[in-house]
Amino acid sequence: MLTFDPFKRITVDEALAHPYMSQLHFPDDEPTCDPVSAFDFDFELYSLKKEDYKDLIFDEIMLYHDDDSYKRYLKAKTEFPEGILF
User: Has this prediction a pTM greater than 0.85?
Assistant: First the structure.
């Protein structure tokens, strides 16, 4: 059910309908939400170096420990909904 390539992954709905999940699948008790924005996963579209991933991990950690980082994240997400990596 899991694969590294984001374009080959099955959807959540497909995963829940999979026979492996049949005993756990209960549609009346499964929350739904809007899809996650492409902004949060644009790193998957690029071949990044080890240092780039370290920087991304640090940035992610700072979102939870620094109000200014979180504000910059929200602003960038609004301005660039499809992502900002290049």
Answer: no
